[in-house]
């Protein structure tokens, strides 16, 4: 029986970038618990994001994929990117929002500090997707931590609404997250 709090692709759109092989799942804002952390966000000067998504393949993994395929003939590049896209499309990408919220921050060199509030997601397909992606590409990518960024800010004006890339569960804990609530 389906969990009533579970959401699926019928309401959410899977977006694949053929140039970079990044994949995100758009999250319907109505499903999010934005109000539960609004006060904390406002106290810390964070801004509500304009769009909400969960990253399936982020920039770090996509950069490695791109570096691997760029050395190949063009037709093989297209075949590999199509295989990654088709692999992602084979999953339902059902998810359930967890009632776990965290404040995180990260510094990017000396010139930028970003802060975010994220909500955790139970995303059962992501583990199997990464098993199959690693088999397909002969890689050992870590499974990213399923989450959606609700609020964010940056010391750089042009990145005020940009979140913090969380590449794995281990990376998340290195950010010293603070549980909210």
How far is it from the N-terminal to the C-terminal residue, by CA? 30 Å
**Given the structure, what is the number of helices?**
5
Q: Quaternary arrangement of the chains shown?
A: single chain
- The structural domain count equals 1
What does the average pLDDT come to?
Answer: 89
Offer a few descriptive terms:
181 residues, alpha+beta, six-stranded antiparallel beta sheet, three-stranded antiparallel beta sheet, 5 helices, globular
Summarize the structure.
The chain is an alpha+beta fold and 181 residues long.
Can you walk me through this structure?
Helix 3 (74-89) packs antiparallel against helix 4. The strands form 2 sheets. Strands 1, 4, 6, 7, 8 and 9 form a 6-stranded antiparallel β-sheet that branches. A 3-stranded antiparallel β-sheet has the order 2-3-5, with helices on both faces. Strand 6 and strand 7 form a beta hairpin. It has one domain (6-180). Helix content is 29%, strand content 29%. 25% of the residues are buried. The chain is built from 5 helices and 9 strands.
Which helices and strands occur, and which strands form pairs?
Elements: E1 6-7, E2 14-16, E3 23-26, H1 38-43, E4 47-48, E5 53-57, H2 59-70, H3 74-89, E6 95-108, E7 112-122, H4 125-137, E8 147-154, H5 169-174, E9 178-180
Antiparallel strand pairs: 1-6, 2-3, 3-5, 4-8, 6-7, 6-9, 7-8
Helix pairs in contact: 3-4
